[in-house]
Design brief:
The structure is a single chain. The chain has about 210 residues and is α/β, with parallel strands linked by helices. It is about 25% helix and about 15% strand. It folds into two domains: about 100 residues, Uridine Diphospho-n-acetylenolpyruvylglucosamine Reductase, domain 2 (2-Layer Sandwich); about 70 residues, Uridine Diphospho-n-acetylenolpyruvylglucosamine Reductase, domain 3 (2-Layer Sandwich). It contains seven helices and eight strands.
């Protein structure tokens, strides 16, 4: 018989959860349209785990922003309320990296799925975090190129999740892990402040903070 567990120390009384949920929903509705916010049980259950299905727990709220400004607003609102935020890509990871917090917000970045540019001369691409791993190789294929890190879930996993988990794959033996194939990452801190790591140049001055992250 298959069983599933919740992460230790993360359950909350139903009354506390309901009160907190109402507070968070009210705050986030000031920044997101109603269709970009999920909080009913049947809507949040699909987000209760990632590929590590042994642990499951429903998030308080799921936010699905469509713009960077909305991402920033969600982070700032949650920081102000003291609400934990867990970012989520495609949910294919096997390490529990997208496991929700029972009193937190799951920040789904699935709608950021555009390849912004692809330069076959410099062999680089600018993509949003929700772009599928395989989609990058498909876009580069006409130029005889491909994106080397190829985890087994490459047909579904996103580049943002790959960066978060430093994903590899068969080609990593020759071309390295994700960190060896990404030049620059731009995002937001938990407080909602914009931050950039790395550079579009092959070598950048200062500490290699991209690798540290």
């Amino acid at each position: 018989m298959n069983t599933a567990s919740t992460a230790p120390g993360t359950t909350a009384p139903s009354t506390e959860r309901a009160t907190r949920q109402a507070e968070v929903v009210q705050a986030l509705l000031q920044h997101l349209p109603a269709h970009a916010l999920l909080w009913h049980t049947e809507d949040t259950t699909p987000y209760e785990c990632d590929g590590l299905t042994a642990y499951r727990q429903r998030p308080l709220v799921v936010a699905l922003p469509e713009t960077e400004a909305q991402v920033q607003a969600v982070l700032r609102a949650c920081h102000h309320l003291g609400v934990p935020v867990v970012a989520r890509g495609a949910g294919t990871g096997l390490s529990g990296g997208a496991l929700p917090h029972t009193l937190g917000v799951t920040l789904s970045l699935a709608k950021f799925n555009q390849i912004l540019s692809l330069d076959p001369v410099s062999r680089t691409a600018r993509v949003q975090c929700g772009v599928r791993n395989l989609a990058i190789s498909e876009a580069a294929a006409p130029y005889g190129l491909y994106y080397a890190p190829d985890p087994s879930s490459q047909i579904a996993c996103t580049i943002g999740g790959n960066i978060a988990e430093n994903s590899g794959g068969v080609h990593c033996l020759k071309y390295g892990l994700t960190v060896h194939n990404v030049l620059r990452v731009r995002g937001f801190t938990a407080e909602g402040d914009e931050v950039t790591f790395g550079s579009e140049a092959l070598d950048a001055p200062g500490y290699d903070l991209l690798a540290a992250v």
